[in-house]
From TrEMBL:
The keyword Membrane does not apply. Keywords: Disulfide bond, Signal. SUPFAM superfamilies: Trypsin-like serine proteases. Residues 52-286 form the Peptidase S1 domain. This is Peptidase S1 domain-containing protein. InterPro entries: Peptidase_S1_PA, Peptidase_S1_PA_chymotrypsin, Peptidase_S1A, Trypsin_dom, TRYPSIN_SER. One of its GO terms (molecular function) is serine-type endopeptidase activity. It comes from Panagrellus redivivus (Microworm).
Amino acid sequence: MLPVFCAIPFICLLFLTIATQVIGRQCGVVNLKSAPWSNQTASEPTQNHITVIGGEEAHKNDMPWVVALYVHGSYTCTGSLIASTYVLTAKHCVENIQLPMYEVYVGYGNTEKNKMQYVKVDQIFNNYWGDISILKLKAKVHTTPVCLPVSYNPDCHHGKTMVVAGLGNHVDADYNPVGAQNGSAVDNIPDNPAESVLWTKIEQLDKITCGLPPYYDSPEFCAGGLRRGTMGGDSGGPVMKVEGNRVVQIGVTSRGYTEAVNHRLFDAGIYVNVGFHANWIAWVTKGAAQFRHMRNPCYLN
């Protein structure tokens, strides 16, 4: 299913294919032997860790595209670089705030904190159909962007592992989010981001786990795990999978949905399906975003 703005679906898909083949060669290139992208399971959560529930600290260049969004000098959300002048994030992070107040800090994923680059935001493009926005920067950023999917069907990836990353606040691995049901778990936004990118591995879950409608081509999907997920300040951050030899961002962190399973916390989150909005992203970025085709398990024996 294509977003309704695309009047000529064939032309839109052709445009995406050309973008993938011509400029999609440099996105998502990292060391796939490093912990986030290898087949090894993330280590057990420690008693105290930062931001992402069950998270581990990313090493230099594991996720160079992860950025921090600031408003009036205060940290608000995570984002991801999808081209040299475009950042993908959650719409609720950038709504109802005047444009001159925005800054994007680049470098959490690939350098020391005191050497990071900050760039002013020139334009904001909000999507009308989901919690997803694109920020156009005033200057180019010379950092590896993440790849995006031409399409992504969550129903075909049930139980599959993915990586979520963020820059949110301190949480305890044994935290007890009283009243965290239906999204309030992500309401506590920190004044400052974490010292570095934190990541963890989560699983694709059935939509009903997060109370999502059972649409076939859903604009959102549900993912998480026991003591693994996202918290305050992680909104707008990327959910990623390895496709071939590249890292592809399949989701944007939107909101939390925490449940108790066998008296243990099951940290399910709701994420925007990036593939559902692929044509809109290609249109907004004027072909600058780089796309990759994802294998569809529904059609594999």
